[in-house]
Every structure is written in structure tokens, then in C-alpha cells.
Amino acid sequence: MLILIDDADLTKIEELYNMYPYDGVTTNPTILSKTGNPNPMDQLKKIRALIPSDAMLHAQVLSTEADDMVKEAKHMVSVLGENTYIKVPVTANGLKAISILSKEGINVTATAIYGVLPAFMAAKAGAKFLAPYVNRLDNLGYDGVQIAKDIHTMVKSAGYEAEVLGASFKNSQQVLEMGKFGIGSVTVNPDTLKALAFNGVAETAVKDFIHDFEGCCGEGKTMLDFE
Fold first, then answer.
1. pTM, entire model
2. Is 87 in the active site?
């Protein structure tokens, strides 16, 4: 499973990458606005420079007309370079833009997905990733995880290469459910990522091991002190 960081804060991204080699970063206009940088492209360039060259960077267009989306997407790729995935909302104009961009070889992530059929149409249009908003679907009274699973099943049954990129999680259990189902990628906020990969139980176990070892072998001792 690909695991991406859903944030644009450089400090948080660097901290997480220092812990584990993630697969990239996803952003959206709201996430970028929270950084306080009035130049969003500058923030994206800083993220691109911070993460490995083979890591993915997902960034969203703001235009609403199909032709303008295409122009904006091409500009973003020209500035941000390889491994840039352009997030395009699955609206009527968005689907048209996805089709145009995919035919021109630009990687597209279909975003703002609130149902199975919109995702399926985005896959037909050539999107590489399909990003259902799991928690937002829950808040609308749906089962967000189940919708993500249904998208995965329908798209794979039809033979499309598009992968579900689960987004908008409220807890690590939602991420685990998708992973167990075989969904290929998720993007997760830093707090949930930490809860998913690191927990206090392991830290407590380590302290117990050290306490017992030092009781026998001496305070501050490690295996480096013995031959």
C-alpha cells in the first residue's frame, strides 16, 4: 500500500520522512492555505525539494472550466516537474479535463469523489488515482470505507488501472480496513499517520525491557558495553 502525507506543512513533512520513507505528499487548496504562504506554488516547490525525487506530489487546480483546468494543470506540471499528479474534482467539466489531460500524458488524481459512479467515470476518463473523501462521506450519512471498497471492486472488475487513493480519514482503523481489502493507496494527515505507525504501548514495552536489563547489568548499559 502506498502511504502519502496529507499536509503541506514543511516541518511536519520533514519529521515524518525522518521516521519512515513515505510515498509522497498530497495537498489541496485548503491545506495550502493553512501554511500561511500567499504563494501556493512556492510552497509546492518547497515540498518538492524536500521530498525524494521519486516521491509523488499531488496538487489541485482551482479553475472550474475544462479548458482552464487543462491550462492550469500544464502550468503546474511545468513548474513542479516529474511525479506531479494534478488533482481534478469530479465535476462535469472536471471529467472532460481529466480525459484531455490523461490523453496528453499528464498524471491525474480525480478528487472530491462522493460516490461510486463518479469515481468509475473518472477511471474511464483516464485518471491514475481516485480519491474518495472517506470521513466526509461518513458525515453525509454514508459508509465512506465501504464506498471506497466498492469503487475499488468496480474499477478493478472493469480492468482499469486506476487506484483508489483513500483520503479524509478520522482514525487509523479506517486506514487499516482499506488496507486489508487490498486498496492500493491512502493519504493521511500527520496525526493519524503517527497513531497508525507509532503508539505508546511499544514505548512502554521498551522502557520495561531497559528497566529489567539495567537491574541486572547496570544503569545506562547497552550491548555495546559487553563482548
1. 0.91
2. yes
